[in-house]
């Protein structure tokens, strides 16, 4: 007997709510860093005029640097995501087919790959940190702040990659609660040490901007260690065995066949956004535009946290449904997921359109940064329902293993609109960061429509993995 819509919605919510908690906590780690950077000098507004202006510029430089580092760590996460996506899809199908040994094998291959990637990324960052910092096009102290942050966070990369891959494996097995609980630990550790080292509280030395990076580094190391211990002990129907870390070429090939297109898509997506942020930085020597862009990104993230969680749960349920040879169930789950996620993001869009100035004033005291952040949030309000469609239908097709076609359509939209028109807006027409956000909003609208049309065609139902 087929599942009712009510039962499918219940399954979506049960899978989604721990991911929502995890995403909120993960976003709070980044938002915490951004807030501290915008307020790294406490009570700056009480300083005399010359010192206050200098302090505001220092905080603009710090906020822009944190924004750049966020993009770099997004890149690291996307690289590892090529392994995580493949692991999640294969584990979901194995669990759906009640093939536990296959699920454990994929978990071992994914964790070994994640550890190797983390070590390689750490070495590359140590070697090339100066050219990377210089490539940001930041001015003044922005480059120095970026370099300081990268040096301190590099040792945490292997732990960060292990945490990301472990989370993907657990979600594929249907356990979305454990990643959320781990991020509770990560967030508490981050808040304690970042605030403590930045302002010299909790008995810790006052290190200013350096303290933000140290707190984040400690938090990611703790998260990686905890997740490895969790998998070794076994959770969600999967367990990490040492002998599973040895290469299993058949499963490794399947994992990469699914994950590499997704990773390539992510890499190109990141590259486009990084080029745009460099263009934004290049057009504003005060770093206010870069800081505003980063602030708006951090705030906007709250609009799609629930949708991302629902999309992740959708991918798991689609994979399990296809493992059960039930494509109709997979299709129904996806449309229910969009009804839920699209509705939530529409409400967020209305909030950004009518109340955009409230979060902008909270995150920064700098009048120019506040104004630009507010305008960017207003712009993004209009694309929220389409952004939800891009996520839900795109994740559903990824959960089915149709990652190559999703990559092609996504990149066509991003290269043709996001990059090309975005660069024209920033460098040729001089529309500034707000003009770039209009371009980004338009591109997300187009991408959402494309993903829906591709999903509605239905060819994802017969993809072989």
Write the layout of secondary structure elements.
Elements: H1 5-38, H2 49-96, H3 100-134, H4 142-153, H5 157-172, H6 177-199, H7 209-233, H8 249-282, H9 288-323, H10 327-355, H11 357-363, H12 367-380, H13 384-399, H14 403-428, H15 432-457
Please tell me about this protein's structure:
- The model has no long low-confidence stretch (mean pLDDT 86).
- Helix 4 packs parallel to helix 7 (209-233), helix 5 (157-172) packs across helix 7 and helix 9 (288-323) packs parallel to helix 12.
- By secondary structure, the chain is mostly helical.
- Helices cover 82% and strands 0% of the residues.
- The chain is globular and about 70 Å long.
- The chain has helices at 5-38, 49-96, 100-134, 142-153, 157-172, 177-199, 209-233, 249-282, 288-323, 327-355, 357-363, 367-380, 384-399, 403-428, 432-457.
- The chain has one domain.
- The chain contains 15 helices and no strands.
Summarize this entry quickly.
The protein has helices at 5-38, 49-96, 100-134, 142-153, 157-172, 177-199, 209-233, 249-282, 288-323, 327-355, 357-363, 367-380, 384-399, 403-428, 432-457. Helices cover 82% and strands 0% of the residues.
Name the poorly predicted regions.
none
Classify the secondary structure makeup into a structural class.
mainly alpha
> What is the 3D shape?
globular
Number of folding domains? 1
State the major sheet: none
Total beta strand runs: 0
Provide a count of the helices: 15
Strand residue percentage: under 5%
Average per-residue pLDDT, rounded, comes to 86
Instruction: Indicate the radius of gyration in whole angstroms.
Output: 22 Å
Give the H and E element order. HHHHHHHHHHHHHHH
Helical fraction = over 70%
Span of the ends, CA to CA: 27 Å
């Amino acid at each position: 007997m087929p599942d009712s819509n009510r039962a499918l919605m219940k399954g979506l919510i049960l899978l989604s709510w721990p991911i929502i908690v995890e995403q909120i906590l993960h976003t709070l780690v980044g938002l915490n860093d951004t807030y501290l950077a915008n307020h790294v000098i406490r009570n700056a507004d009480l300083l005399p005029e010359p010192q206050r202006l200098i302090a505001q510029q220092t905080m603009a430089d710090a906020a822009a640097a944190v924004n750049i580092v966020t993009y770099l760590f997004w890149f690291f996460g996307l690289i590892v995501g090529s392994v995580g996506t493949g692991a999640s899809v294969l584990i979901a199908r194995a669990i759906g087919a009640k093939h536990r040994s296959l699920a454990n094998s994929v978990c071992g291959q994914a964790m070994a790959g994640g550890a190797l990637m983390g070590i390689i990324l750490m070495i590359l960052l140590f070697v090339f940190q100066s050219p990377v910092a210089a490539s940001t096009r930041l001015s003044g102290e922005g480059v120095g702040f970026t370099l300081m942050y990268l040096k301190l966070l590099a040792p945490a990369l292997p732990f960060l990659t292990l945490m990301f891959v472990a989370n993907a494996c657990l979600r594929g097995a249907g356990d979305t609660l454990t990643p959320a609980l781990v991020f509770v630990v990560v967030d508490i550790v981050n808040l304690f040490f970042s605030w403590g080292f930045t302002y010299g509280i909790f008995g810790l030395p006052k290190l200013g901007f350096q303290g933000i990076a140290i707190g984040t580094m400690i938090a990611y190391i703790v998260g990686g260690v905890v997740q490895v211990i969790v998998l070794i002990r076994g959770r969600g129907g999967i367990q990490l065995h040492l002998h599973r870390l040895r290469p299993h070429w058949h499963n490794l090939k399947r994992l990469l066949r699914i994950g590499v297109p997704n990773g390539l898509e992510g890499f190109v997506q990141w590259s486009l956004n990084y080029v745009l942020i460099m263009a934004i930085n290049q057009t504003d020597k005060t770093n206010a535009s870069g800081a505003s862009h980063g602030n708006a990104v951090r705030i906007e993230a709250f609009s799609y946290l629930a949708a991302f969680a629902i999309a992740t749960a959708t991918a798991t349920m689609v994979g399990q449904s296809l493992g059960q040879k039930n494509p109709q169930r997979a299709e129904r789950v996806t449309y229910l997921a969009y009804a839920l996620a699209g509705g939530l993001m529409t409400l967020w869009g209305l909030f950004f359109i009518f109340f955009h100035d409230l979060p902008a004033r909270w995150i920064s005291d700098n009048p120019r940064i506040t104004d630009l952040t507010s305008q960017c949030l207003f712009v993004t309000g209009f694309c929220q329902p389409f952004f939800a469609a891009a996520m839900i239908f795109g994740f559903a097709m990824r959960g089915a293993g149709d990652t190559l076609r999703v990559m092609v359509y996504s990149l066509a939209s991003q290269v043709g609109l996001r990059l090309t028109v975005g660069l024209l807006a920033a460098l040729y027409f001089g529309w500034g960061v707000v003009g770039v956000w209009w371009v980004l909003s338009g591109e997300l609208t187009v991408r959402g429509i494309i993903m829906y049309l591709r999903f509605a065609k239905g060819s994802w139902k017969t993809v072989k993995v």
